[in-house]
Design a protein that fits this description.
heterodimer, A: alpha/beta, 14 helices, 18 strands, globular, B: alpha/beta, seven-stranded mixed beta sheet, 30% helix
Amino acid sequence: MGMTMTQKILAAHAGLDSVEAGQLIIADLDLVLGNDVTSPVAIAEYKKLGLDRVFDGKKVTMVMDHFAPNKDIKAAEQCKMCRDFCGKMDIENFFDVGDMGVEHAILPEKGLVVSGDVVIGADSHTCTYGALGAFSTGVGSTDMACGMATGKAWFKVPSAIKFELRGSLQGYATGKDVILHIIGMIGVDGALYKSMEFTGEGVHSLSVSDRLCMANMAIEAGGKNGIFEVDDKTIEYVRAHGCREPRVFKADDDAQYDAVYVIDLSQIKPTVAFPHLPENTRLVEEIEDIKIDQVVIGSCTNGRLEDLIAAEKIMRGKKVAKNVRCIVIPATQKIYLEAMEMGLIKSFIESGAAVSTPTCGPCLGGHMGILAKGERAVSTTNRNFVGRMGHPESEVYLASPVVAAASAITGKISHPKEVE
Amino acid sequence: MKFTGKVIKYADNVDTDVIIPARYLNTIDKKELASHCMEDLDKTFVNRVRQGDIMVAGYNFGCGSSREHAPIAIKESGISLVVAKSFARIFYRNSINIGLPILECPEAVDAISEGDMLEADLDGGVIYNKTTGKQYKTQLFPKFIQDIILGGGLVESVKKGLIK
């Protein structure tokens, strides 16, 4: 029986000719990731194993991004625990304040993930790297600990849903709108335990940045992973950043899918997910006036250079609305520097936005932009659960960078054409 | 493994941000995590939960963040077992890996009310509602996963050479 892209990658890493959905396998890992919130739990578990070496110091990485720069003493202790552990274990890819970035933005940028890899990360948005044709999935800290020890992890081979993309995005539509549209269509558990495989000629029209954004939110539909067919753009990106050769896996023609959806990219319109689930999607052009208190532009979903360029273009020469705080967070130091050299940072500041060093910060209600009771934010992040950005009675509306930028200017959730 | 406990029931899509809000993730102290368990969804939980109680919930329980702090907080709060219509996959994995017993059983969940007394047999795959007298069969875990659970979690399994 034919295999999906994901199944082929898993079979190759389990030393098997073929695998099928539901099969339990043990696969070799190309990379094991943790952050400053999940790694301390993993380190505590790892210590129970009584080992003095991780399986491969080059294949383990830790990124201090959630509560870093340290938001309080306890957060500082957690980062210190990670720093000490990485030093002791010769883990060279330890990213700390000064050269860090939001984990899922920095790993592809540093070339640590290439097509065909199997990656686990103790962070649910590890699925991001599927954009590069890798199998990558979020796990917990104990999985991370055992992955660091053995270089292996157990998986139940997933079945898949195929999304056949056609056409190309028009106007102000972005990859964020495509994935919000899909989550709205299939629901927050619509892809539970499954792969979301993105194929079709429409894939080629999407930038790598848009693909990273879409794969990033596969978890928001319950997906085990989101994965894009590899094309010239992928190879070009990986070669420009990667230090290893990509391995290209293609789904068999007779691969089995639980469902197939055809998505016409040209029909996608700017979309916003209302509180408190990413599936509560509505078209921006169809919503009533919703006043906002804060805008966040950043995160592993939408903090890349392309996102900042698009947002700045909307905001250029205009002022952030009175009583709205607009916080822009470039996802990595490199993005920050490039944005500065392009004049984007100056422009954001002149518009009245605050620009922060890279951090996950407000996305998870950690720091750098917490909401008070009753406040509303438009955010380019990935979750709008109860209390996600602060007070349990605050609200988060998920949108693309251009919708967030337009909303910052008008003070209400707005279509970019409103500020043209 | 057999469990008997009183039911504390929640709805669909209980996410890990409400199970343990991120503002408390600056610690790995289990007791401290448990003291904030379910805080943003149900402020009464920590005061009314008793050792052995069984948490029952709808679809997609534990969705969202991969934070293992969520099943750790639930386990440490005294909950002996979580029964849900379905679990989000990372929470499902984490529960197995840390040894928090879980069961998927959509039919049982619909017929269970807050405060009911349940008996559950993990090995036999049976849930018995003592309050209503009704019994439900659940699917057993595959042997590989049973071995991890019975072996005391993933770390113990790795120690024993289950994953080399």
